[in-house]
Amino acid sequence: MHVLVTGGAGFLGSSLVEALVESGHEVTVLDNCWRGRRENLKAIEHDIVFIEGDACQASSYERIHDPDRIDIVYHLAAINGTKWFHEEARMVMDVNLNSTLASLQFAEKHNARYVFTSSPEAYGESEIMPLGGDESSIFPAASQHQRHAYGASKYLGEVAVHHAVRHGLDARIVRPFNGYGPRLLGDEYGQVVSMMMKSALDEGVLIVHGDGHQTRSLTHVDDLVRGIQQAGELEDLSGMSFNLGSEREITMLELAQQISRLVHQETGTLPELVFEQGYPGDSKRRTPHLDTARETLEWNAEISLEQGLLQSLRSML
Asked: Which of left, alpha, beta for 172 (phi over 0: left; psi -120 to 50: alpha)?
């Protein structure tokens, strides 16, 4: 099949592109390389078509050769990273919403199947666990903080997808839970696993937000890619949503302690744990409702946290 991946040079997108190429698909990547990196695709650069462009702009899609041949659009282009949500809320909303609307319009125009990469953040501050069923999304007053610039943009993206489904588009939604693995950005605008590892390696400290008792369900990128790809390739899934995540919860304090042990094991240096104030609106707990993914995609997270963390750390050494 001919596949378009927006955000295909990013952490999750580049791994999906590799899997699609390995499966024999012809892949076009659209990425503006603001956070994505061409080097993430270096191993397969001769097997793909790369378009450096803004997924928010219709003109970027006009550069796709023979667009009517595109069978599936995997839409991953977005701004992620908690620090961005607070510092650049309007930019986050602009990119996440407009890239979704533009890619949806392309899929509708060319009758391509569409897979929207949403997020558990689309449920806001829901305390119903496991998360990701038919419960309502809960967002606090906008005056409290800016964190939900991201989650609300993903919620509205899901609204747009279901509107397109009602108008005849074959579209599906996936919600990756706290992905980690090689290529995950570890700078101050990155995600927790790589941020902890980079800080431990570069500065000898591991920063834990709050008391560290908040939990996450960390999911290896290879497991996520397998679920995303299946959600796009299987037939008769239009309008369905799939949570993709590990059922093993870990507190952020336990994660920091485990990474500290691994860094000591691999380098001989034992990082110091440092506690700092967290971000407003940070979720206390997050674990996925997996019935639909398990029954329809026959999907489960298979890579253990211990195995995945060690692989991620070694990729940074």
From this structure: beta
